[in-house]
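Hi P.,

Sorry for the delay on this. The queue was packed all week, but I finally got your sequence through. Input first:
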Amino acid sequence: MNKKKVLNKQNGITLVALVITIVILIILASVTLSATIGENGLIKKAQEAKDRTTNAIKAEEEEMNKLEQELDTIIDNSVNSHIWNRSGHYVICSHCDLKFEIGKSIINYKTKLSENKVEITPEKSGYIEKQVLIQEQDISWLVLGIADENKDGINESLLITTDKPVNNIILYGATGYLYGVDELNRVCKELYSSDIESARSISIEDINEVLKYEPEGGTYTTDGAVTWQTTGNFTTKLKELSIWNTIKSVGTKTPDGINTEEALGEYVLNGYLYRENGEYLICNINKNDTRYPIKEIKNELELIVGAQNDFQYLVASRGGYVAHSMYSIGIANVSNGGISNCGDLFGNTGLEKQIEAKLRPVVSLKQIP
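Then the structure:
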């Protein structure tokens, strides 16, 4: 009897131990599963580690590719880049001994033909009708000059322009003044860019550089248009002129529509013609001027104004001048042998005028086609 009780007691202890063991195993299994596949489990951490490794490899590859490209660029530049200098009528590359004559040498530049039409709306030109311009084909590209576009002291770019003005555009009034420069550049870009290079409009700075002309400052007269004077700078404001009271007495209209004395007074006198001490530099009457002999820039001058002084085109620059009481502002232009950075479009009396002329695209080449 006592022996049977002992056996039953031993069996009971074994069963409890078994149950406890099973419970412990379940708990351990649960903890293991959680540690393995839970939110912060081993599998997720392993995947994250794999992703970090993959991203690190990808970032390293990208950095290596970038360094390789930079190295290729350095090598290409050392082999193919140009260092231009001007000597008389010529521009010469000291790197590869290329030599071009300004206004004479033709460059084999090809525009893209896929986008050969552009529109100008009245909201941008001031003209009452929409204008549609189509890329002209019968043109050649001549050397205009050189440029240091990186501003690092090295003339790395060769500037070219068309052998004649192209297309035709009309600008009118305040709107033409406000948006004209941007529209000239946009139209030239859309019509005359290549697949590699981007075109723009010629600027007064381009013209000054090719003709080696240094304007003295903003121009004005105190007696109508008889005796021209210069401020000697391009920062003098209208309100700083001795004739400011006369100017504002006839009108305080401004192209932006503010139309107050204060607003008009802040406008800068920066317009000029090609003249020195009252004498025109770019016209037939000055051919024998020993200060600035025309014969020394014959090629360049013909490139800008035409062999017969017959080129008429707009220039992507703005300026304003004063003739006694009238302040006039506008877009720069070349016309009948004359050059001005302030063709009339708008005046302080509110008078608006129209300018109709052609375009002159310019392309900056870092590599020669």
